[in-house]
Specification:
By secondary structure, the chain is α/β, with parallel strands linked by helices. It is built from 14 helices and 16 strands. The protein is globular, with a radius of gyration of 22 Å. The structure holds 2-phosphoglycolic acid and zinc ion.
Length: 438
């Protein structure tokens, strides 16, 4: 008996034989955590933690060293946690049991949000584990992840998520030059991912030319979108609408606008300070202003229209425009299943941003996504403003059948790494490619 158990164990190709943590660099020149997981079958998975700049207070903790070196942002403690406690707990476990792996990590840290281990350590290991399993079975990560009914059949078409792509960066990603954090386009009329990116690249060029013609072209913001040298938020919306038209595309039918207001960055307690316009709005005034924009511009999506603590504001905004556009909770929902359930019950959002590092593990992120889909809410898998060459989110968005995917602009390699991976996935599907989720 003992011998046969040992034999089975030896045959378990997905048994974890190695876990290691490494210190790497992200797109803002800050250190970040890389994890590598190796299985008995020779599968190797690697993942890097991203980092936000406009973070929700309910997110898993991005553990930094503090002190004076590198502005206190070093991650040697988080890396050491991977090489110490996390490694010790995972060696010998079955990597193919992702929930079991993530539970083992959770059991090491009883705090809310992994404040001891670091959510940057846990998410890197959790993602690396899933890559290791996929590699052991020699399949793409998205294929390994797609356990859902609509993707299982070899015959069935695989749909790709609709991208939201940044043209102008703002808010915390551009020293608050304008209040809105992200001005993006959504190529709703594109028939493939490849076509979607072609359209967006034309819009990016047109937007750059618009700035250039006015002497306003001054480089790019954190996610590669043009630096927002605008006098008002509305001027940015005008410029974006013109850029869509100048690119030869039709607003609404072919391309919509998506905004991430990221209002937690400039308001709380129902008071919102518009820096550029030098005025303060209450929740009702902010909701009215944004709803007015929805009437005037080809807007299809607005994220975090009010601050993370403004539950009433979220509900009011969703009541006002939720039947026409996506109302997305990012800082408001922080990829947390319980918050998603509450938002569904109170109808205070209709779409959930899914950022694995907000949750800290793949299993927790998946629970938030499942809660959204169970409640007929849509999901958008998202990268962060601080990124790397890691392409995990591209695979999650396809494998988990999310409605959308958001990774920043169409420039800078940490962004195009994801878009190029989406193109590879689309090409690999061949006849099975089912176009974009609309
Ligand atoms: P962050 O920004 O990664 O800085 O939080 C992205 C977002 O708010 O969606
Ligand atoms: Zn956001």
């Amino acid at each position: 008996m003992a011998r046969s158990i040992r034999f089975e164990k030896q045959m378990n190709k997905t048994e974890i034989t190695s876990v290691s943590g490494h210190r790497r660099w992200d797109s803002r020149g800050r250190p970040t955590v890389e994890a590598v997981v190796i299985t008995r079958g020779g599968g190797k998975g690697r993942a890097l933690a991203p980092a936000g700049a406009s973070t929700g207070s309910g997110e898993a903790v991005d553990l930094r060293d503090g002190g004076s070196t590198l502005d206190g942002l070093d991650v040697t403690r988080a890396v050491a946690n991977v090489n110490g406690r996390i490694r010790d707990a995972l060696i010998g476990l079955d990597a193919s049991d992702q929930a079991g792996i993530d539970a083992a990590i959770e059991s090491l840290d009883p705090t809310q949000g992994f404040s001891e281990l670091g959510g940057n350590a846990t998410v890197a290991v959790s993602l690396a584990n899933s890559w290791a399993v996929a590699d052991t079975h020699r399949v793409d990560l998205w294929e390994h992840l797609h356990d859902s009914d609509d993707l299982t059949s070899q015959q069935s078409k695989v749909m790709l998520p609709m991208p939201e792509i940044q043209i102008f960066g703002g808010g915390a990603h551009a020293h608050r030059r304008i209040d809105i954090q992200d001005l993006m386009v959504v190529p709703v009329g594109a028939s493939s991912f490849a076509e979607a990116l072609d359209w967006v690249a034309e819009i990016y060029i047109a937007a750059g030319r618009w700035l250039e013609d006015r002497g306003l072209r001054m480089g790019v913001a954190d996610e590669g979108g043009w630096w927002p040298a605008f006098d008002t938020n509305q001027q940015a919306l005008e410029a974006l609408t013109v850029a869509i038209e100048s690119a030869g595309l039709t607003p609404v039918d072919q391309v919509g606008i998506a905004l991430d207001i990221a209002a937690t960055q400039f308001g709380s307690g129902g008071r919102y300070r518009l820096g550029r316009e030098d005025r303060t709005l209450d929740t009702g005034e902010l909701v009215d202003m944004l709803a007015g924009w929805v009437d005037r511009y080809p807007i299809v999506s607005i994220e975090d229209p009010v601050a993370e603590d403004d539950h009433e504001g979220m509900a009011s905004f969703t009541r006002t425009v939720g039947d026409r556009i996506q109302v997305i909770g990012d800082d408001y929902l922080v990829t947390d299943a319980a918050r998603v359930e509450r938002a569904a019950a109170t109808m205070s959002a209709n779409t959930v941003l899914i950022k694995p590092n907000q949750a800290g593990t793949l299993t927790r992120a998946r629970a938030a996504l499942d809660a959204a889909h169970r409640n007929d809410m849509q999901t958008i898998v998202s990268a962060r403003s601080g990124e790397t060459e890691d392409v995990s989110v591209a695979h999650l968005s396809v494998g988990w059948a999310s409605k959308g995917v958001k990774v920043g602009s169409i420039t800078r390699s940490e962004r195009t790494a994801k878009w190029n991976e989406m193109l590879r996935i689309e090409e690999s599907l061949g006849e099975r490619a089912g176009g974009l989720r609309k």
